[in-house]
Fold:
Amino acid sequence: MASSTVLTPPHHYLNDGVGIKSWLLTRDHKRIALLYLAGVTFFFFIGGAMATLIRIELITPAGDLVSDETYNKLFTMHGVMMVFFFLIPAIPAVLGNFLVPIMIGAKDLAFPKLNLASWYIYMLGGLFTLYAVVAGGLDTGWTFYTPFSTVASTSNVIPAAVGIFITGFSSILTGLNFIVTIHRMRAPGMTWFRMPLFLWSTYATSLINVLGTPVIAITLLLVAAERIFHFGFFDPRVGGDPVLFQHLFWFYSHPAVYIMVLPAMGVVSELVAAGCRKPVFGYAFVAFASLAIAVLGFLVWGHHLFVAGESVYSAMIFSILSFLVAIPSAVKVFNWTATMYKGSVSWETPMLYAYGFIGLFTVGGLTGLFLAAIGVDVHVTDTYFIIAHFHYIMVGGTIMGYLGGLHFWWPKISGRLYNEGLAKIAAGIIFIGFNLTFFPQFIVGYLGMPRRYHAYPPEFQVLNVLSSAGASILAVGYLLPMIYLMWSLRYGKLAGSNPWGAVGLEWTTTSPPPTENFVTTPVVTWDAYQYDAQQVEGHVA
Amino acid sequence: MLPEAVHQQTHSPSLAHHFDNLEQQREAATLGMWAFLVTEILFFGGLFTVYMIYRSMYPQAFAAASHELVIWAGTTNTAVLITSSLTMALAVHAAQTGNRRLLVTLLIVTIALGCVFLGIKAFEYYTEWVEHHVPGLNYAFEPEYYRNAQIFFSLYFVMTGLHALHMIIGIGIMLFMLWWSIRGVITTEYYNPIEIAGLYWHFVDIVWIFLFPLLYLIGRHAHV
Structure:
């Protein structure tokens, strides 16, 4: 680690204005990133509390801790909170907000006021959904399937749907802001193919946000209208088609998986390059793989409907298209691995998360291929196999990427170094806890344990106890970074502008950066990841 | 030329601090609006998809229900909206050429036409209510199509209702533009707000151009 003696400059974005008002009315993308950090962390721990109760209930085969109805509400609220209020915004809204302008050498995002508005929209949507929790919960599953959600459920469908509808606009507007910023705000010389790969994946994610989110918005609006006014859209009593709801829902919610995992892939590209001191192998392939995933991701939603009454021909086509998504995903995994080959591979904390991501994402991705195969999918639909598969992608993928990125850029964000030893231990605990939690679920699911029940046959108990034990380890792993990152804010060593010896514009400015990011606008004359050229420290004089 | 230098040269009160020059600011704002309109297309696109699927499932019920709409009101509204798009386009031209009085007049006409559209739409909603065409709340229909026509009317109210909401937002934006024009914020150098507000206005107009035939015209004569 390159130790730098550069002192924290007297003026940076964190001390440019004090008091609560200077934060709540800020237009600085870096401060807004921290507002989002507070928001997503809050919702993560609420979703995590639900998961804790689920795992405690499942230690015994009998449904003894909570009633079946309460259990329905627990897994629903766990899914809603984690998907819409943590996984989707986490990397783009926190790391993306902080990094996109800095990585392209701009002073801010194209629309700073809109950026702040996006945060308020996100929080407002979150409050609506929290209200649904406090007022008695929601029991439809995070998927809101009709006609249960429109006709049968007596829980708080409307506030939750409205909350997700509102939060959707936050995703759309953030995506729009990133697209315009990347198109129009790049510093002189920062061509598209000199951009860090994190920006390519953020750009691809933003495209999905702008194209997909409005469809879930209108779909949930129709569900709400059907409940409020008793309009008929999906109600079979007036000739409505509940399967149409599923098509509309998954048209967004499958691409949403890529909204969650693409930014993590972008983070991993940065971590691997910095951790191996090498340019990412096959830069253009990795960049275009992001776009390919975004495009193909829109064409595979039908694989969620293999057992829902879809024609055999559409099922076949959706199956083939789902296999195709594996290609750009595999390109990325192979290219990261090739980058490590003969690299000076580091064992610092961010890199540990990158290793974790590559391994866990590969497991999640390969089991995704099982599910793209119609025959296997029919066998394991609605079992714990599905649960394990998508947690490997969303938790093993997205959260590993998020935490890796947070550790990598924390010195830049806060200007301080965290305790490396503790951080390594936490990364190890998370990796072990995660696998112990979710690997048994592959087995128990394949053996036939269905998802969404609070009781189960006794022969599944051993695997469930293992899973719950893993969850408790995982919880410790998630609490640790909270503690030592907060601790570092006050007591951490000063980081200096480039503690990792990494390249990239964000490492050329001070830590924390000044409000306008750069004292003078940088002029870029080099490609991304020029580690061999060793321009590591101070390529801007 | 270094961007800093450009920043110094063309420092205008209309230039936000994080842009290098007005040109960059204008391009960013325009691209932002286009990206937003793409989102809007997908938003209405979801509705159009639902409409087309049910239309193909229940063509007769949809034709029968469509027949009940007030055709003259829909037609008049189409003419009103197209005219408002013309005045909007002329307003952008007036802003470009710095003709402030014409700009103010044209914006007022555009707003007035928008209000006329909403007035006629409100009259239509009232008529549907009186004739028991509101599913769930006040509904009656010929027995043969009683069930499936509810889907048509549900879609009718959601589609035209969301369109009307966009009109109301559009009128709000235009009032804001009017205020800016009167105060002299809009200049030949900085007329971009009018331009992108116009983009939004035309988009809302185009949505109606699709709604009108889908809801009012298709199969109208098939049903006697």
